[in-house]
Amino acid sequence: MGRRVLITGGAGFIGSHLADELLRHGYEVRALDLLLPQIHGPEARRPAYLAPEVELIKGDVRNKELVCQALKGVDAVFHLAAMVGVGQSMYEIEKYTSTNNYGTAVLLEALASCGGVERLVVASSMSIYGEGLCRDAAGNLHNPPQRTLEQLQGGAWELRGAKDEVLTPVPTPELKVPSLASIYALSKYDQERMCLIFGSAYRVPVLALRLFNVYGPRQALANPYTGVLAIFAARLLNGKPPTLFEDGRQQRDFVSVYDVAAAGRLALEARQTKDQVFNIGSGRRFTVYEIALSLARVLNRPDIEPEVTGTYRAGDIRHCFADISEASQQLGYQPRIAFEQGVLELAEWL
Ligand code: UD1
């Protein structure tokens, strides 16, 4: 494959790390990015962390003319431009579907009419799974439905099987049936499907990466919809306790943005693969309580105890962590940043 890559959303948290990774491996990188004011400030300036070698085109992925211009001379596209966040996707429905669904549609039309590429990689999300895969006491696998409001209001946090036993979460593979519980999840699923359908019709190899809970330097602390690690870090730095929803025992797969960037490069370089959708996580799981303790330690605030609130966030899932065997076998993906190290890297950047 040629070595000129367009990253949509290339000035953002994940995109800028992917750009660094590609530059280190001899690629030329162009970024198309809106420079959202809530992330980049009201003047929407080029972020200082973006490598100077990156050619930045400021603009919207929904502008077909601009996308055609951005596609000139590129060999591959990594599509990251999207609105992120589950909660607000439920009330900013137009914004989410417009940027994520319509934005992807415009990109694909531009690819069809203004010049093909050798490869397209699209960033999808673990959110499409809904609840992660679970096992009951007899060893049967379950695809649990979303918890009801009544269950949450009654503090029934855990997922239960037919005999009312607590279900044990197991790593979620790509084969799990999607359970779309938010507009965000729907838009991510639509993005990956649109790209895959486009790819088979236009003979463009397409890979979709289902990213789990990505964290690391450059994660926007000021953005209220940022991930839980950044929220907890910001609270600890202000001397406040991390507030844990539910009982704090919900489990997630936190993957360092450096590993995600490495996975992104591998996806661009992969030979045509049988399966085209890959989980990108760390393959490890932590409870929200455990990550609050780790952060307090590395930020030198072990005196601040996390606060278990017993409240809940509507639409939250209980547990989900990745089965990464497909990505490791087919892409050669191996997460390298242990959570303990990744949290230190995040703390150093703060
Ligand atoms: C969700 C999406 C994911 C998306 C990410 C960023 C799902 C299943 N996943 O992840 O695809 O990339 O948002 O938008 O929808 N928590 C607290 N206290 C807080 C904040 C959060 O306890 O102050 C808990 C939440 O209840 C949740 C966990 O921390 O259990 C992780 O939350 P968050 O970082 O927002 O990400 P997800 O909801 O897992």
Strand order of the largest sheet: 3-2-1-4-5-9-14
What is the N-to-C succession of helices and strands? EHEHEHEHHEEEHEHEEHEEEHEEHEEHH
Taken from the alpha-carbon principal axes, the silhouette is globular
Count of alpha/pi helices: 12
The share of residues in helices is: 25-40%
- Which small-molecule species are bound to the chains here? uridine-diphosphate-N-acetylglucosamine
CATH class: Alpha Beta
- Radius of gyration, CA atoms, in whole angstroms: 20 Å
Q: Within the CATH hierarchy, at the fold level, what is the topology?
A: Rossmann fold
The CATH architecture name reads 3-Layer(aba) Sandwich
General description of the model:
This protein is of the alpha/beta class. α3 packs across α5 (93-114), α5 (93-114) packs parallel to α7 and α8 (228-237) packs across α10. It has one domain (4-349): Rossmann fold. The protein contains twelve helices and 17 strands. The protein has helices at 13-24, 37-40, 64-71, 86-89, 93-114, 149-153, 183-202, 228-237, 257-269, 288-298, 325-331, 339-349, and strands at 4-8, 28-33, 55-58, 76-79, 119-125, 134-135, 141-142, 168-169, 206-211, 213-215, 243-244, 251-252, 254-256, 277-280, 286-287, 307-308, 319-320. The chain is globular and about 55 Å long. The strands form five sheets. A seven-stranded parallel sheet has the order 3-2-1-4-5-9-14, sandwiched between helices. A three-stranded antiparallel sheet has the order 7-6-8, with no helix packed on it. Strands 15-12-17 form a three-stranded mixed sheet. The structure holds uridine-diphosphate-N-acetylglucosamine.
